[in-house]
Amino acid sequence: MNDLTNQVAVITGGGRGIGRSVAEKLAAQGARVVVTDIDEANARSVASTIEASGGAATPLRLDVSQSSAVTALMSHVEETFGRLDILVNNAGIAGTPVWVDQISDEDWTNMLNIHVNGSFYCLREAAKIMKKHRYGRIINFSSCAAVTGLAGMAHYAAAKYAIVGLTETAAKDLGAYNITVNALKPGVIRSALTEGFLDLAEGPLTEATPIRQIGEPADVAQMVAALVSPACGFVTGCSFIVDGGFHLVNKMDETMMKILPAGTGV
User: Fold this and answer.
1) Residue 47 domain flag
2) Strands (E), 95-227
3) pLDDT in tens, 232-255
4) How many domains does the chain fold into?
């Protein structure tokens, strides 16, 4: 098990889904977790669960799209704990599927404000603290929508591609301070954000995934835990796909399945 004893971790969007699972995972490994969420009640619920299990957690409300709010929260973390070792930029929204020529200015701006600006604000302020201690682990959440795009989700895909660029450049800028910056690209993960989508498509998606199952938040949390480990100091500027192999599947595979003998391959 990775030992994160006495490390301080800030998780954005930690009130449910993947963020909740990450917060619980890091707390179980000894980290003092700051659970932030735009819904403070959700953050408090997660923190209570962690503390009931013997972990240490502090719930705080945070709207990552507000630069001043991010600065204030990071200052509070530094004043309270004296350090910041881990930042997990998980906060985001799914948005509504819409053809590219139908996306409103408001929906476009809101998507980028939360995903891109929010990730940047948090990374920038966290890096200022981490540089003082010459140590840090930063995880930014991109998406498989930043692998080949996603039909009907141009605003979401654009935001997630931007996060890859932020990750790679920040890794270069911060590497000399022993701060690693990596991105995760989850596929379809079972959570509140994907519930409606899975109601319509869980069967076909499961069948098309080589692992033959839909991802769980714990699957992503496990990858986060590995990347924020003190031992994982030589991996930076990378994007890791967590989707059970779904990104590998294409139309040619469907054709080959019709040719291959029954019961073999994928």
Assistant:
1) yes
2) 136-141, 179-186
3) 999 999 999 998 877 888 767 677
4) 1
